[in-house]
Amino acid sequence: MSETKEFPTLNKLGLLDKKHIQILDPGHVDHLLSTIIAGGFNKMQVIADHDRTLSRAHYNNEKTETCHGIMDNSPLMPPYYREEASKLLNKYYPIEVDPIMTEEEKTPHMVEWYGKIHTLLIKCGMSRTSIATMVKQSNVRLRDGTEDLFSKLKSKSVPVLVFSAGMGDILEEVLRHFNVYDDNVKVVSNFFEYDEQGNMIGFKGEIIHVFNKNENAVHESDYFKKIGGRNNVILLGDSLGDIKMAHGVPQPNNVLKIGFLNDKIEERMEMYKKNFDIVLVDDQTMEVCNRLIDLMM
Ligand code: TMP
């Protein structure tokens, strides 16, 4: 049988035979997609990572900034912060994306990295009012088509959880800046605590790093209960740790995991194909999600 007939939904969405779209088990994904489409918008929710998932990994041959990067490169931050944060990034980011180390091996390094960054940030006493300027001056950009995707999700009242190991205050400002922070969108991330003058003095709650996205705030809250009945999930991530973001969704569920592979492509391909249903290789757009949503409109 030809692939077109065998995988009708993948075919309808134009996801077959594209080099940058990798699918290990097309039969399973075709079935998952048709279940999600048949369920309609009332049964759907979206769970998305932020840095390098909602936001682009690069633009005009330049790496774009993550939430942390926005602060690391901001002229509003003291030079000692920028120097130290960049040294820490050079040391710990290669560990985060190391294709050989296990998550268990990586986790203590992540905890150490976030601890050091948080101590450093607290020393800087940055003010709440500087955040909007930092975002405006940065080169952060959402993937092409994100605004369109969010506007369709809002129009169909589909809840979107943005779950990030970045900096919540910066992330919220990025979403506001690009006009996608509507009332169907909830952000779970690391949020600053401020004193009465609006100076940052610490962090609220437990640290969220890339590999503990199953263990914190959102899973202890009633978020998933409140949106009960939405058991069809589109999960978007760029890190293997992102797969855990849907762990709180009640069973039985249908989670379509879409992974953006932006970096160390060859080394990580097999791992991504095993863990994400659809792997999008250096795709800086939301085209695949938009096609799926358009098919349901
Ligand atoms: P996210 O993908 O969950 O939004 O994760 C945040 C990213 O931020 C993750 O890839 C690690 C990165 N990061 C920095 O770029 N700089 C830092 O100082 C820290 C602590 C993390």
Task: Supply the key terms.
13 helices; two-stranded antiparallel sheet; 7-stranded mixed sheet; globular; 42% helix; 11 strands; binds thymidine-5'-phosphate; alpha/beta; 297 residues; 17% strand; single chain
Shape: globular
- Lateral strand order in the biggest sheet: 1-11-10-9-2-5-6
Element-level helix/strand string: HHEHEEEHHHHHEHEEEHHEEHEH
The DSSP helix count reads: 13
Please tally the β strands and state the result.
11
Detail the poorly predicted runs.
none
Roughly what is the average pLDDT, rounded to an integer?
93
Largest sheet: 7 strands, mixed
Radius of gyration: 19 Å
| Bound heterogens, unique | thymidine-5'-phosphate
Sheet/helix structural class: alpha/beta
